[in-house]
Amino acid sequence: MTEEAENKADNGEETSPEAETPINSHEEEQAQNPDEAAPEEPVEPDAAHWKDVAARNQAELDNYRKRMAREKAEQAKWANANLLGELLSVLDSFQMGLDAARLDDKDSVITQGMEMVQRQLDEFLTNQGVVEVPAIGERFDPNQHEAISHEHHPEVAEGVIISQVRRGFRLHDRLLRASNVLVSKGPEDVEAAATSEE
């Protein structure tokens, strides 16, 4: 009951149910449907939040796709590394056979055929990204060369590679196999002069 109705009841006046203050129809609807929200709040801040969330998720998805593409390209780049590494020992054997054929008769049809196959193999390796490690005449680099022995040489400075026993190869920027090389100790008389001075 309202205050007015209570006052009338206190004064002895009769109050009828119709005399009470009528309830707004909108308030009745809210009373009947308590799940419905009160007056709607502005949608703008909420929409901006979800728009930001969507933009962030889109950026994360783009970054994920780029990362997956990079990883796939990286895998493809190194996928043949084991196969090519195994092929190198076959190339060594083929090279020894070719060298023997050249010593026997460098103008024979067999030697010419083997040289043709060697060119094709070299071209195949180049297409796969395999590059031979430079050796003879280069300074010894333990990251690319494996020293088999050190020898005195009258014309080659110390630390320079005299000859190559087995070729080395890189696949892109990684070493597949180091070159086996002979490294110069320099002229023999320089070492003798150094010991005589002591």
Model description:
The chain has 198 residues and is of the alpha+beta class. Among the domains are: 69-128; 132-198, Nucleotide Exchange Factor Grpe, Chain A, domain 2. It contains 6 helices and 6 strands, in the order αααααββββββα. A hairpin with a 2-residue loop joins strand 4 (169-171) and strand 5. It is elongated, with a radius of gyration of 45 Å. The relative contact order is 0.08.
What are the defining features of this structure?
198 residues, alpha+beta, Nucleotide Exchange Factor Grpe, Chain A, domain 2, 3-stranded mixed beta sheet, 6 helices
- Assign the structural class, choosing from mainly alpha, mainly beta, alpha/beta, alpha+beta, or little secondary structure: alpha+beta
Percentage of residues assigned to helices? 40-55%
**SSE run:** HHHHHEEEEEEH
- Number of DSSP strand runs: 6
How does the major sheet shape up? Answer: 3 strands, antiparallel
Task: Provide a count of the helices.
Answer: 6
Kindly report the spatial arrangement of strands forming the biggest sheet. 1-4-5
What is the residue-averaged pLDDT? 79
Which class of the domain at 132-198 in CATH terms?
Mainly Beta
